[in-house]
Amino acid sequence: MVLQTKNTIILSILFCIVAIACNTDKKNMPLVSVNVKAIPMVHTTDVSTLISDQGITRYRLEAKIWDIYSNEGETYWHFPEGIHVEQFDSLFQVVGSIVADTAYYYERKELWRAIGNVFVKNTGGTTFETSELFWDQKVPPNVVNAFYTFQSVKITKPDQTFMIGRNGFRADQSLNTIFLFSGKGEINVDESPDSLRQNTIRSDSLRP
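Request: output the structure for the sequence above.
Response:
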């Protein structure tokens, strides 16, 4: 997918539809820190751009400020005043979105970090609210480590029932297969159309 601005920069936004769960320890999930005191290489304001996938417009990204930094060999993007991404269906109707007060993207790691009032909606209409969210784009579609957080998360289904993951959650690239972190292990929530189920998996290694 190619992000069109004054300069062409690669930006992948993955909301593919898959729902195959696998059990991976939270310790394997990358965490990052960043120093944004340096002067950005690129500074862009009032960004509003469309993102295409194989020639078809799929997403729209909006941000008030977009800065690009290079620090000790690591290039990263910073959206200090928030970011808003929408996903379209074939009829250009909005079916999913991500909103956050602040966001970073680390090019080498292919890792997003959204901070603040993070609000995500998947293609099935389920919403996720948390204060921090990581999105690892290198994770294969069938691995439930693509989206994750260790902060409290509220997940609300279209029928208005909701669940709380007090210690965070992890999910696949489609945000359909979900594991909520709890004190005793995880809760598996499969949001795929063919299988809506909930069960508990106990694992002491998942305790924070």
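The CA atoms of residues 88 and 94 lie 5 Å apart.
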